[in-house]
UniProtKB/TrEMBL annotation, chain A:
MF terms (GO), sorted A to Z: flavin adenine dinucleotide binding; glutathione-disulfide reductase (NADPH) activity; thioredoxin-disulfide reductase (NADPH) activity
Keyword Metal-binding included in the entry's annotation: no
Designated name of the protein: thioredoxin-disulfide reductase (NADPH)
Alphabetical list of InterPro entries matching this protein: FAD/NAD-bd_sf, FAD/NAD-binding_dom, FAD/NAD-linked_Rdtase_dimer_sf, GLR_AS, Glutaredoxin, Glutaredoxin_euk/vir, GSHR/TRXR-like, Pyr_nucl-diS_OxRdtase_dimer
NCBIfam families referenced in this protein's UniProt entry, alphabetically: GRX_euk (TIGR02180), TGR (TIGR01438)
Family: Belongs to the class-I pyridine nucleotide-disulfide oxidoreductase family.
Domain Glutaredoxin: 92-153
TrEMBL record, chain B:
Organism: Daphnia sinensis
Gene Ontology CC terms: mitochondrion
GO molecular function, one term: protein-disulfide reductase activity
This protein's record includes keyword Disulfide bond: yes
Keywords associated with the record: Disulfide bond, Electron transport, Redox-active center, Transport
Database matches in NCBIfam families: thioredoxin (TIGR01068)
Listed Pfam families: Thioredoxin
A Gene Ontology BP annotation from the UniProt entry: cell redox homeostasis
Record-given protein name: Thioredoxin domain-containing protein
Lineage: Eukaryota, Metazoa, Ecdysozoa, Arthropoda, Crustacea
Top-rank taxon, per record: Eukaryota
Length: 675, 137
């Protein structure tokens, strides 16, 4: 290490490059790793300090200073610049504090990997607090360590360790090493500019946009039938076996509730009003059929070549497509977009695939499901249980541990108790271990044996068993290894950068298969459209995966945007988080006199950020409709005062957010009382 | 041309010949589901009799109104035209070839050439006029 390179380090006295292991290139072919101990390094600094005094005289503070072997060491100045420069000029940048054990842990991780890191110790410089504020602005993260790799924000200690385990760290390091992306050779002729694998939410959006911008595009979409043979048309999960039929069945259930409420409002509704499964399924499937056709026509009109065939890699630019009749074709493309989505997972227990079904089957089930067991605590399990119970199906949910992992847990439990009150049975702490068919039929009879943690067995008969224990990314059968695309080994999802670009520069991925991102249709669509614009229309906008609103369509809907209470506390610390909340009773249920105080609203605010609202949560009818509009408030950085200043629309449920004045920390009663 | 004397409900995959009783004598008309492009070539493009092609879908409500009315007209006009029914989900290639974007869509073909077309449900008079023009009545 040259003495010159240490100069600014000494001068500013605070930035310090932690050289935990330096790879020195001694020749073109040989790389020697020299490990420098922490102690030894300190003495090097001490030593050089003395030698440098004379040099310092000529040094102008606040000047950018770079050398080939060193990170640019940024003197005091604009804290945002300081942050940006450290990130921009170093493969690995860490904002740390000398006293923080998590910072030490992160540094040790990189040290164990023999990786060179650039560190700013915030507690050793007087503008440390300003830099921390700048970091908060940039990343929404206030705590240290705050780690960046290859220019991308990784997060704190836990996220860095997780990134190491799930392959993301390796991905970012490789990417930053590769330097600027190699341009595609222009002289190679491909069949297409872009081939999209998967005609779902993301794939269709991307292919149409790309074609509109003049690219020659093909989209391959092929549905592998479920174990019981269910299959469907163009459009992917959302249209055929997801959002659309789910919301329509949810509507069927809501109508059931309305019919019984109607009597109290004076309607002469016969008690014999019954639900007909076949009529509902036929109506829903007819609507889906028309949507499938609409997508086909749209592709045709936009001149996207639609290949109803299964695609797999032959090499990084070549795909083999196999259609229904097993006819194989080979196509090549300059860019390839992976948008293959996910499929429901089956547990590895006897009888699961033979006798069980999933969300892929339920929406077109040709017979009434009868007494149904739903296995899983995912939003899909709870939504299905909700609409089934709502149309009169005997429904039981079997859950290993918590409900709705990843969602706000207070609300998850409120959803569970509401569902339990409305006739859905919960078997918590159990997992199925065996399914046996007792009787064939439509539906047949299935005996389910399940077990809890202490080994107690439970046996019960059902007509239908629906697994909703998670979804697997469709990346294991598309020859992805032939294209060398990196996957997270833990979940098979594709690792990408913020441009949805994989480690192979001409291969991109969007939608449900994207590692660490949200599995939602509008997210996939946005990513697809913006990616196409960047590839073919000179666009620069990236998909913003933060503050994405979402709704769980359980009988009482749950809408949210931003952080759960748990995540807010983890990010900002319990002392810095204030929660305003209230239970609520929609006016509509006042006359039927049901569901008193079953609804709930809360805003999660960060005290030190002027009570900026970082989490919005509502459990109520039509929560989806309520949440969509408020989400823009959070995106624009609304504070609690902004919510207070907003005038409500009366009488609505949503107006509750303009008058939330009880904090959770006060412990005051928030049940609405009286007539 | 095949003549069918008995009420003959052959399965949907082959030609369906039905006896028309409307004019008080035993007669036949031809109405069939198109299986694929080859079938279309053989039974629609390569015949001299005019053919009405009814592009329809299972999920399409208006198709369920128009279908039976076309069927009734075919039965009435006997062999003056044939009715070819194309389920666009089963034979999407044909829908594409004839640029069908909405259903029901009906095209009239004579000697392999498109003579006319309409989209949606026509009222009886217009429908009759359309058919009459095709068969030259
Ligand atoms: C029950 C359920 C309810 C849901 N509800 C909602 C909701 O309310 N709101 C919401 O936003 N999201 C919801 N989702 C999630 C939403 O459906 C997905 O996020 C979305 O469909 C993802 O889009 P995608 O483009 O990534 O993949 P998909 O839509 O899954 O499309 C992928 C397509 O690629 C095809 N394919 C896969 N491999 C190949 C191959 N090798 N060759 C050719 N084709 C291939 C697949 O068959 C599929 O058609 C729900 C999902 C489920 C299961």
């Amino acid at each position: 290490m040259s003495t010159r390179s240490l100069l600014p380090q000494f001068f500013c006295a605070v930035e310090r490059r932690l050289t935990l292991g330096i790879a020195h290139r001694t020749s073109c072919t040989k790389t020697v790793i020299r490990r420098v101990s922490y102690l030894k390094q300190k003495s090097v600094i001490a030593l050089t300090r003395r030698h440098l005094i004379s040099d310092i005289q000529g040094f102008i503070p606040c000047q950018r200073y770079t050398t080939s072997t060193m990170a640019p060491v940024i003197p005091k100045g604009d804290p945002i610049q300081i942050v940006d420069n450290l990130i921009k000029n170093n493969r690995i940048a860490i904002f740390s504090k000398t006293t923080c054990p998590f910072c030490t842990k992160v540094k040790e991780l990189f040290s164990s990997l023999n990786l060179e890191v650039a560190v700013i110790e915030l507690d050793t410089r007087d503008d440390g607090a300003d830099i921390q504020d700048a970091l908060l602005q940039k990343t929404g993260q206030k705590t240290v360590p705050n780690v960046f790799v290859g220019g991308e924000h990784l997060g704190g200690c836990d996220s860095t360790i997780a990134a190491h385990q799930n392959g993301r760290l390796e991905f970012l390091l490789n990417k930053s090493q590769a330097g600027p992306k190699a341009e595609m050779p222009d002289d190679v002729k491909y069949d297409y500019d872009l081939v999209v694998i998967g005609g779902g939410s993301g794939g269709l959006a991307a292919s149409k946009e790309a074609a509109l911008l003049g690219a020659k595009v093909a989209v391959c979409d092929f549905v592998v039938p479920t174990p019981i043979g269910t299959t469907w048309g163009l459009g992917g999960t959302c249209v055929n076996v997801g959002c659309i039929p789910k919301k329509l069945m949810h509507q069927a259930a809501i109508l059931g509730q309305s019919i019984s409420d109607a009597k109290k409002f004076g309607w002469d509704v016969p008690d014999s009003a019954k639900h007909n499964w076949h009529t509902m399924v036929e109506g829903i499937q007819a609507h889906i059929g028309s949507l499938n056709w609409g997508y086909r026509v749209a592709l045709r009109e936009k001149k996207v070549n639609y290949l109803n065939a299964f695609a797999e890699f032959v090499d990084p630019h070549t795909l083999k497509t196999t259609d229904k009749k097993k006819k194989e074709t080979t196509i090549t493309s300059k860019y390839i977009l992976l948008a293959t989505g996910g499929r429901p997972r089956y547990p590895d227990i006897p009888g699961a695939r033979e006798y069980g079904i999933t969300s892929d089957d339920i929406f077109s089930l040709p017979y009434h499901p009868g007494k149904t067991l739903l296995v899983g605590a995912s939003y899909i399990a709870l939504e299905c249980a909700g609409f089934l119970a709502g149309i009169g199906v005997d429904s039981t949910v079997m859950v290993r541990s918590i409900l709705l992992r990843g969602f706000d847990q207070q609300i998850a439990e409120l959803i569970g108790s509401y569902m339990a009150k409305h006739g859905i049975r919960f078997q918590r702490g159990y997992v199925p271990i065996k399914l046996e068919r007792i009787e064939e039929g439509s539906p047949g009879r299935i005996k389910v044996t399940s077990q809890n943690e202490v080994g107690e067995l439970l046996e019960e008969e059902y007509n239908t068993v629906l697994f909703a224990i998670g979804r697997d990314a469709c990346t294991n059968n598309i020859g992805i290894e032939k294209a060398n695309v990196m996957l997270n080994p833990r979940n098979g999802k594709v690792i990408c950068d913020e441009k949805e670009q994989t480690n192979v520069p001409h291969i991109y991925a969007i939608g449900d298969i994207l590692d660490g991102k949200l599995e939602l249709t509008p997210v996939a669509i946005q990513a697809g459209r913006l990616l196409a614009k960047r590839l073919f229309g000179g666009g620069t906008m990236l998909t913003d995966y933060v503050n994405v609103p979402t709704t769980v369509f359980t009988p009482l809907e749950y809408g949210s945007v931003g952080l759960s209470e748990e995540d807010a506390i983890a990010k900002y610390g319990a002392n810095d988080v204030e929660v305003y909340h209230s239970f609520l009773t929609p006016l509509e249920v006042a006359i039927p006199k049901r569901d008193d105080n079953e609804g709930y609203a809360k805003l999660i605010c960060v005290k030190s950020l002027n009570e900026k609202v970082v989490g919005f949560h509502i459990l109520s009818p039509n929560a989806g409709e309520i949440t969509q509009g408020f989400a823009i408030g959070l995106k624009l950085g609304a504070t609690k005062a902004d919510f207070d200043n907003l005038i409500g629309i009366h009488p609505t449920i949503a107006e509750v957010f303009t008058t939330l004045n009880t904090t959770k920390s006060s412990g005051a009663d928030v049940l609405q009382k009286g007539c | 041309m095949q003549r069918v004397i008995k009420l003959n409900l052959i399965n949907e995959t082959s030609s369906v010949f039905r006896r028309s009783l409307s004019i008080g004598r035993t007669a036949s008309y031809q109405s069939f589901n198109v299986q694929d492009q080859e079938d279309f070539q053989k039974r629609v493009l390569n015949v001299s009799t005019p053919v009405l092609v009814d592009f329809h879908a299972k999920w399409c409500g208006p198709c369920k109104t128009l279908g039976p009315r076309l069927e009734a007209l075919a039965a009435e006009k006997l062999d003056k035209f044939h009715l070819a029914k194309v389920d666009i989900d089963n034979v999407p290639e044909l829908a594409e070839e004839y640029n069908v974007t909405a259903v029901p869509s009906v095209i009239a073909i004579k000697g392999g050439k498109v003579e006319g077309s309409f989209v949606g449900v026509l009222d009886d008079d217009k429908l009759r006029a359309f058919v009459n023009k095709l068969i030259g009545e």
